[in-house]
Specification:
127 residues; Rossmann fold; 35% helix
Amino acid sequence: MGRGTYMPSEASGNPDLEVEHFTFSPSIADYIREASLVISHAGSGSIFETLRLGKPLVVVVNEDLMDNHQSELADELAERNHLFCARPQTLRETVEGMDLNVLQPYMPGDAKPVVALINKFLGFPVN
């Protein structure tokens, strides 16, 4: 939930659903490792940390942001079946209708060729 003041109410209507939330944590990796599903904002750090840990992820995009790169990233990763993307008004529908079997593992790319190209362009030694 970040550093805000909003406090969610307990999940009702489904005794089998256990929802945990917390205000702020410098590292959420332990929470993610224990989760069966992660619902997160669309920040790139949260997205890639969750994908790296191999957990199913629903990203909720904040449509109020200007130049919404979060939406672009979330939509692209959803298109590639790495996660599910929702808006606040479609979150419930997304969770109820999602099929975890369609998700594909995210494999990070190799940045070394890009680093070598930048180093060469800037005149730094290339290993």
